[in-house]
Design brief:
Shape of chain A: globular
Largest interface: A-B, 46 and 41 residues
CATH superfamily of chain B: monomeric porin ompg
CATH topology of the largest domain in chain A: Purple Acid Phosphatase, chain A, domain 2
Number of domains of chain B: 1
Distance between the termini of chain A: 57 Å
Radius of gyration of chain A: 19 Å
Number of strands of chain A: 13
Number of domains of chain A: 2
Largest sheet of chain B: 12 strands, antiparallel, barrel
Oligomer: heterodimer
CATH architecture of chain B: Beta Barrel
Order of helices and strands of chain A: HHEEHEHEHEEHEHEEEEEE
Number of helices of chain A: 7
CATH class of chain B: Mainly Beta
Helix content of chain A: 25-40%
Largest sheet of chain A: 7 strands, mixed
Number of helices of chain B: 2
Order of helices and strands of chain B: HEEEEEEEEEEHEE
Strand order of the largest sheet of chain B: 1-2-3-4-5-6-7-8-9-10-11-12
Strand content of chain B: over 45%
Distance between the termini of chain B: 26 Å
């Protein structure tokens, strides 16, 4: 009886206390808007603020990318990432893109958005941008409205133009509920279909939830439903997507299916055993470099550079 | 004769359901489903249950869906009666031809289960390999395998297994034709009803009814273990089975 009481109290604490890390009620229903509702709200913003083409100063450029930062009590790795990004932009202005990517789970639980946003402000004050899409942790405890107040949209296309007229397309999609939803799937299909005939050098999809269950690192993280996995894998292959960048499982993995490369990135969470951020070097090929971050990093068996 | 019949009846009453001799069964069910990706779809499922002997069962299922997906599976089930309940091992192979997306999906599964009159639990693992229709040998980019997925199923009946009607409900990450990833559970509720044969005595002990009405509703949420769950799809099946 004593044990049962403790378990019940623990469940109660996890489900009701705003300081908890896990919104257990989210197992049964989300208090945040669902994927279709988020899509509609994001489209309103996208229509009012169409994504401009971003120019870079070189045909070959670098993109700093972070995912699964899970900001909680500390921001050590975020400090390192931001400092490295800002320094790199200053020292190699022609090589480093004036923006970085973030693939979601920026916070671990409630009340931590302001801590993360302080870094976004710092980057924006330097004249740079952060493009991102939410992860599931960013929606716990009805946080979509908070996320939206900072990021405004959860899905959008980003076109990067190089000096010689080459264009790369990056499509950010919101998979934080483990599904894109009906409306976002239709939007994505239409966008990719159109893009496949427009001569982009690279088409890259960026999202939070991973598509495949390859090893034990996804033991704690869920995927898309099978029907949606089939559909999206086929869509990506059909419309010439070259690379799909994902987070969520905290561990890197590279797979190919239907001539599309699926790259899962390491987490950048503080105190994580293998915390890394990733720098993509985009030219005729896309190559990526895992950069260790944080005092507890172990580089054993971690190849540093991979590419398409 | 009367005494003998009474003795047989008593014997059948005290005999647990799992120990009753099972009969061959062939079923055909119509399906209607909806999910976020395929939207509305219909289908048909043909299933055969074959008790080879007292210790081995075979199940074969084939399903065609209007979403242009075709599934088939075969399960061999060695089993052993215990003082209470029955232990069984499922060895299954499933194949899906996802024609709409030009993908083959192969699954090999192994699990161990224990069932009693009112409760059944099963746990195991499965291997998945997907291949593009356009795959050629040695083209690694057209092939995807998922080496290990947990398989589980837990269900409860409102009446003993041998009853002439029953209602069951439970949670699993697989059914006869689909094996989902471990964090993608399927919730189901279903039932069956055996039509009354001519002899009411046989009917009472479910020994001679040939026709069975079947129905099942399955709901699939997504993002449950993201703690950001939402509805993804549902499927209803209704059909008949013939026992012989």
């Amino acid at each position: 009886m004593k044990k049962l009481t403790i378990i019940l109290l623990a469940i109660l604490a996890l489900t009701s206390c705003k300081q908890g890390n896990l919104d257990m009620l989210g197992m049964f229903y989300t208090k945040s808007d669902d994927a279709d509702e988020r899509f509609i709200q994001s489209e309103e913003w996208n229509n009012e603020h169409p994504m401009a083409t971003v120019s870079v100063a070189s045909d070959n450029y670098r993109i700093y990318t972070m995912t699964d930062i899970h900001v909680d009590t500390t921001t050590l790795n975020l400090d390192t990432f931001t400092a490295a990004f800002l320094q790199d932009v200053q020292s190699t202005q022609t090589l480093t893109a004036p923006f970085c990517f973030c693939l979601g789970d920026v916070i671990n639980a409630v009340n931590n958005f302001p801590k993360f946003q302080a870094y976004i402000t710092k980057i924006e004050n330097a004249g740079l941008r952060v493009y991102g899409t939410p992860g599931n942790h960013d929606l716990y405890y009805d946080q979509w409205e908070i996320y939206r107040s900072y990021w405004h949209t959860s899905h959008f296309p980003l076109v990067v133009q190089t000096p010689s007229g080459k264009r790369d397309l990056y499509v950010f999609v919101d998979s934080s509920s483990g599904t894109l939803g009906k409306l976002q799937t239709e939007w994505l299909r239409s966008l990719l279909k159109e893009a496949s005939g427009e001569g982009y050098r690279h088409i890259v999809v960026c999202t939070h939830t991973h598509f495949w269950k390859k090893d034990q690192s996804q033991g704690h993280t869920s995927d898309f439903a099978l029907e949606e996995t089939y559909e999206l894998a086929d869509m990506f292959g059909q419309y010439g997507v070259e690379l799909v960048i994902q987070g969520h499982s905290h561990n890197r993995n590279v797979q190919q299916f239907k001539h599309v490369t699926y790259l899962r990135l390491d987490a950048m969470e503080d105190h994580y055993y293998n915390a890394f951020y990733t720098i993509f070097s985009v030219g005729e090929r896309i190559v990526w470099d895992y950069v260790p971050v944080g005092p507890q990093t172990h580089e054993d068996n971690c190849p540093r550079v991979e590419g398409l | 004769m009367k005494k003998i019949l009474i003795l047989i009846a008593i014997a059948m009453l005290v005999q647990p359901s799992w120990a009753l001799k099972k009969r061959y069964m062939l079923s055909l069910e119509g399906e209607y489903g909806f999910n976020t990706t395929w939207q509305h779809y219909g289908g048909a499922e043909l299933k055969a249950f074959m008790p080879v002997n007292d210790n081995v069962e075979l199940e074969v299922a084939a399903e065609a869906l209007s979403s242009n997906v075709f599934n088939a599976s075969v399960t061999a089930r060695p089993k052993m009666a215990l003082p209470v309940g029955e232990m069984f091992i499922d060895a299954s192979f499933a194949y899906s031809a996802v024609q709409r997306n030009r993908i083959h999906d192969f699954v090999g599964a192994g699990s161990i289960g224990y069932r009693m009159d009112y409760v059944s639990v099963q746990v195991g693992g499965f291997y998945r390999a997907m291949a593009s229709y356009d795959r050629e040998w040695h083209s690694e980019e057209e092939y995807m395998c998922e080496p290990f997925n947990l398989l589980y199923r837990i269900s409860a009946n409102v009446r003993p297994l041998c009853s002439r009607w029953n209602i069951y409900m439970g949670m699993a990450n697989y059914n006869e034709t689909q094996y989902e990833r471990m964090w993608q559970p399927l919730f189901f509720v279903g039932g069956y009803y055996d039509f009354k044969p001519k002899s009411s005595f046989e009917y009472e002990y479910n020994a001679a009814s040939h026709f069975r009405l079947l129905a099942e509703l399955t709901v699939k949420p997504t993002g449950m273990f993201h703690l950001d769950a939402s509805f993804y799809g549902a499927r209803a099946k209704v059909g008949f089975a013939y026992k012989f």
